[in-house]
Amino acid sequence: MQKRASIHVKGIVQGVGFRPFVYRKAKELSLLGYVLNLGDAGVRIVVEGEESHIEMLINEIHTDPPSISRIDTFTLDWQETQGDFQEFLITKSSTKRSENSEPVIPPDIAMCDDCLPDLMNPNSCWYLYPFTSCAACGPRFSTITDLPYDRPNTTMADFPLCDTCNTGYTNPLDRRYHAQTTACENCGPIYRLYDAHRNELISSDTVQEISKLLEKGSVVAMQGIAGTHLVTITSDPRPIRKLRKRKKRSQRPFAIMVRSLEVAKELFDITPAELAMMNTWRRPIVLVKKKKLDCTNLSVLGVIPKESLEEIAPGLDSLGVMLPYAPIHHMLFQCLDEASLVMTSANPSGVPMYITSEKILSSLNDIADHFLLHNRRIHQRADDSVVKFTTDDNPVFIRRARGYVPEPIPTNGVSKSVRLLAVGPEEKSTVSILKSGMIYPSQHIGDTNNIESIEFLENAYRHLMRLVGLNDIDGIASDLHPEFLSTLHAETISQEKQIPLFRIQHHHAHLASMLVDHKVPLDTSIVCITTDGFGYGQDKTAWGGEVLAGNAKEYLNLGGLESYLLPGGDLTAVYAARSLVGMLHNDTDEKTILRITEGMPVSHNEVISSSTLNMIRGAIDQEVNVVRSSSAGRFLDASAALLGICNENTYDGECPMKLEAVAKKGTLSLATKIFSDGKKQILDTSGMLHDLANLHKAGARRSELAYAAQWYLGDALAHIAISIAEERDVKRIGFSGGVALNTIISKAIVERVEVNGMKPLLHRTVPPGDGGISIGQIAVGTASITDI
């Protein structure tokens, strides 16, 4: 029976070889019609032929689409044949924009298994060409300037195709048909090699030359798909030490790139779930455990000496590992006898990724010995994404960026007419926009406490708005903190556009982001444990260890950590002894505090002595330069300092990370101490620190004490959350905030919640840290502007 079918597919179906896939299948089945990119609204397929053949095409689309594609919605309309097709065609993309469309823009995609043989085949046009790609792989988000995703709307418009490449580009049966980033050495971008004095080093084989320099110990700044890495070998710890010294990063861990999955399995204690995550086309950095042995006699190509592993991630039991995702990475490993390479972001922490040759050369001339730079414009920078498994099967984002951005996150029940912008917090920030019920988070922005980052923030959201066809917004959301530059930016936009500004409490945004993550309606009530370093509270104090009850529209702070006056303002986030003194101050004598803290740094040139302790305690008594805080992050700092594990955060989260790294489960446990102040259930943290100090003094194992302290925090907060949930007849308990990246605390909460018959909610799609705040701000802003 002859039939006609009109099919509308939405999802990741543009820029991933979806149309050529449909074309090939339709031709195989002798079907007539066309397939069309709808610009910002997916793909339309109109087809005529035998009904059974059309059904076979539909089955192929559902069961065997391109591996990178993702089908979110599939609409099918059967009709009578009209007989107006002579063949099956790929029709030119539509440029129309729909006000209510839900565009899905493809993220940057790792090199596929089909292109890798081309890269290594001496008879291929793409032999050792470091920008090899096809319709199913290569740069996407970082190169797109506008939709529809066609070559003129990418930075590859700078590189007209040669005859050879154009032949494949225009042949629907070719793997590179309409591959917008395809090119070869005759028509595409190229790499050039420079020294630190900006002299170009001419070589017939640039990658071979840079490999030799790396083997000699050079630190190389290498421009990639969406940013720049600093690269060293790992078989020798000396280049890593040189990089640390020049970058002034004495402790912060570096990420590494391993040659293959086999190398990763041999080097690290890595789970099947971690391996699978690492090997996806998204290629994130995955945090994995170091092996507890001397990795000096490996059966794989190259070695990583124990000294190098310690230099890569000092004092930690895990490190970030990724697989090659760009052709240049595969080429480097082909030239090098290395199991892995240090591959760390070239930009300083919190500062936007360097993407232009001039910026790279000028900013890194005192860090890198050599520079491998290309001439393809990076339109949108994006850091590597970073993922950690906090339970055996639950990956959470430390950073959601390359490989994921700008994929939208759907909301449940939100009006498609609402249009919002959220500018995030101050640190580890992202921005998000809401259009047609979909939230589009940006790539990682960084710390928005400088003008450069605010400019990046504005560029990021304007680009997102242009891509999704959002011409205006109905409101803007920011953090509650009145002094954040992002808040001031939001105030300016609100005034200019005469639209409402929603100032959203930091931890309420965490709670709301959990609702989005689990795709539940925004009026769903949950109890949420929200723990981190700092969030400006409704009472103008520093929150950071709260148990909230509510939904996206409203919330109550009903429990959490005891609050203390912490001395030194912002210095408390750096020097753990300040938090420890503040938490012990009220009910511990000075002699005992001195015994515990003597010699710990409290500034870059001062340690605790009898006189400095007396001065610090005096400042607390007089409430001079102190901040009242209930921060779980500061509690973990204090615990790490008390146990002699770490007493200074030279990078964000160092003390808690090293506390987690040292911890080993034993027989020790700490008694839960919870009291009520008449309004809230309060966790007694100073009492726990006293118990910890006494056990430490009595000779208990430090590793077991570290575990007990973290388990205590998670288990006790879960006790409070369960009590609140029972009172309010709530069945879901979430865990959000930066501390939700801690494996021990996460497991303690999940175990306690499940034992009590309730459902624990952990993040999976939305980062639990501040990278997820803009998503929560969108949810709260939506609830405020509409009647959910």
Task: Show the helix and strand layout.
Elements: E1 2-12, H1 18-28, E2 32-37, E3 43-50, H2 51-63, E4 70-79, E5 88-91, H3 115-120, H4 163-169, E6 191-195, H5 206-215, E7 220-223, E8 228-233, H6 237-247, E9 256-258, H7 261-267, E10 268-269, H8 272-278, E11 285-290, H9 306-312, E12 318-322, H10 327-335, E13 340-345, H11 357-363, E14 370-374, E15 386-391, E16 394-399, E17 409-410, E18 420-422, E19 432-435, E20 438-441, H12 451-468, E21 475-479, H13 485-497, E22 501-504, H14 506-517, E23 526-536, E24 542-550, E25 555-561, E26 564-567, H15 576-584, H16 590-597, E27 601-603, E28 606-607, H17 610-622, E29 626-629, H18 632-642, H19 654-662, E30 674-676, E31 681-683, H20 685-697, H21 702-728, E32 732-736, H22 743-755, E33 759-762, H23 773-785
Parallel strand pairs: 2-5, 7-14, 9-12, 11-15, 18-21, 21-22, 23-32, 25-31, 32-33
Antiparallel strand pairs: 1-3, 1-4, 2-3, 6-14, 7-8, 8-13, 9-13, 10-11, 11-12, 15-16, 17-20, 18-19, 19-20, 23-24, 24-25, 26-29, 27-28, 30-31
Give your account of this protein's structure.
With 788 residues, the protein is α/β, with parallel strands linked by helices. It has 23 helices and 33 strands. Strands 6, 7, 8, 9, 10, 11, 12, 13, 14, 15 and 16 form an eleven-stranded mixed sheet that branches. A seven-stranded mixed sheet has the order 30-31-25-24-23-32-33, sandwiched between helices. The chain has a six-stranded mixed sheet with strand order 17-20-19-18-21-22, sandwiched between helices. Strand 7 (220-223) and strand 8 (228-233) form a beta hairpin. Helix 15 crosses helix 18 (632-642) and helix 20 packs antiparallel against helix 21. The protein is globular, with a radius of gyration of 27 Å. The protein starts with a strand and ends with a helix.
